[in-house]
Amino acid sequence: MKKQLLLKMGLCIVCASSLLTACTKNNNQGADKKVDQSAQISADVSSKITALGFSTDNARKVGDNYLVEGDIMLTPANLSETSTSPTLRIAEVEQYRTTNLVKNLPRTVTVSVSNLPTVYATATANAVARYNALNLTLKFQVVSSGGAIQIIGFNQGPSGGYITLGSSGFPTSAGNPYSQIQMNTNAAAYGSNPDLGYVTSVIQHEMGHCIGMRHTDYFNRAFSCGGTATNEGTAGVGAINIPGTPTTADAASWMLACSNGSDRTFNANDKIALNYLY
């Protein structure tokens, strides 16, 4: 998830799988992982990203992975996967999921926090409680270390009018959740005294990516991020509409691409989407 910094320099959030995702705050609203902006991607990698249904605009190499759409990290394994899903439609405004979901339900996924200030650990516990309150067949449990989803920190300042608040990924083809959430500890992201509700909402968003949720405004990131209208991908694969979710703009969804700096949690349509999947 990202947050745009142009409007509120003091507030920053980034959101976003085994596709990694990120959240940013826009120095207008959104977040993504620390990247080597000088790194280039090959034509072969670019074509694979496009084949997965993601935009290659501003795609960047991050270690061995590739950051796309401002907050989604694709691993080499993701680039080699082929879709087994039915024909997909281009997103409009409904809730959307990725091709891969968490399998072997009912299931409890453990979550741990390493080497981060107390507010991040408390926010993680709160985010877990929010999911578990939905009584899904997929539940979460906080553990002291070695969680199936491990939350760690990185430090990256603003770039291009946005700051990354956090990054994560999508489930693996084997049906496991993405294994890592990275949270930005830079002061420009959450300030020197991070708001608990704000941090909770970003972790909640990134956990959504880890279990297969795409952005609600995937069809047009400008809905939450501002700026030029941008579709996150052609939806050849990887953006499957969840039945029962609305076909009109959903300004309060926890899976909007960019944060407005508030404590955004599940709305009624989000709950419909999660209950349908899990």
Automatic annotation (TrEMBL):
Coiled-coil residues: none
Family matches, as PROSITE patterns: PROKAR_LIPOPROTEIN
Alphabetically ordered keywords of this record: Signal
Signal peptide as annotated in the record: 1-22
Pfam families in the cross-refs: Peptidase_M57
Protein name per Swiss-Prot or TrEMBL: Dual-action HEIGH metallo-peptidase
Source organism: Mucilaginibacter lappiensis
